[in-house]
Design a protein that fits this description.
alpha/beta
Length: 246
């Protein structure tokens, strides 16, 4: 049976303040939890319902009821297992390969999707501004579907990082050069901006090459693409160029 203190601790991890204080985050669902269990992530405590106990027994889980799981789950429909994991040490930035930089991304769903895209397209590292949503936010963790274990993520002062890098810096903007007509570098940085405001002025001034995804429809009144959608298209283009060059 869950204690009141366990419920209090687990539910508190919905808030960044307590994740930082306790250095813990929550992962839920069989697939997502298994990704963390099969990685270098450090397990603090595992909870599961009796019907899936045999699948997790080597991790010494605490068996709880569906009702108890609903008290600690952040999901509308709780999914059998919940794990508490240690937040890893901050990844050191390795300036090789393709690095994706996020300038104040606010939506957890967008960040989660971007982490999955980074995993799919083999992004070397994800570098986030200090104001970007926390990658250990439960909604982000859930949206990554386990990809979080494979992508090194660093939060830092983007201006300082970009000022001192020797890599070429591409920035996604509305009126840049058509990305489909470019020969993109593979050891490079791609900057994606905030959902509402795009890349901030202090970061725009450090970009070497502004790129855009051309709009082909003459009838659409859509102002811009969703940032995760735009990230998918641009990462695909970077990798398409790499494939052609092989």
């Amino acid at each position: 049976m869950l204690s009141k203190n366990q419920i209090k601790i687990i539910t508190s991890l919905k808030h960044k303040k307590y994740r930082i204080e306790l250095q813990l985050f929550v992962a839920e669902g069989i697939k997502g939890v298994n990704e963390f269990l099969n990685s270098k992530s450090k397990l603090e405590k595992l909870f599961c319902t009796e019907d899936v106990y045999s699948s997790f027994k080597k991790f010494d889980p605490q068996i709880i009821s569906e009702t108890e799981l609903s008290k600690i789950s952040g999901l509308t429909t709780p999914n059998k297992v919940l794990g508490l994991f240690k937040i890893p040490e901050i990844a050191k930035i390795d300036e090789k390969g393709l690095i994706l930089v996020l300038d104040d991304i606010n939506d957890p769903g967008n960040l989660g999707t971007i982490i999955r895209l980074s995993d799919w397209f083999g992004v070397k590292q994800l570098v986030c501004s200090n104001n970007t949503v926390d990658c250990y936010n439960p909604k982000v963790v859930q949206a990554t579907m386990g990809s979080l274990v494979r992508i090194p993520i660093t939060y830092c002062d983007l201006k300082e990082f970009l000022k001192h890098t020797e890599l070429p810096i591409y920035g996604a903007v509305m009126d840049g050069e058509n990305v489909y007509s470019m020969d993109l570098e593979q050891n490079a940085i791609l900057v994606m901006g905030n959902e509402s405001n795009g890349i901030s002025q202090k970061i725009t001034s450090l970009i070497n090459t502004e790129i855009t995804i051309p709009r082909y429809s003459k009838k659409t009144i859509t102002e811009s693409l969703n940032v995760a959608t735009a990230t998918a298209i641009l990462l695909n283009e970077f990798r398409r160029i790499k494939f052609i060059q092989k």
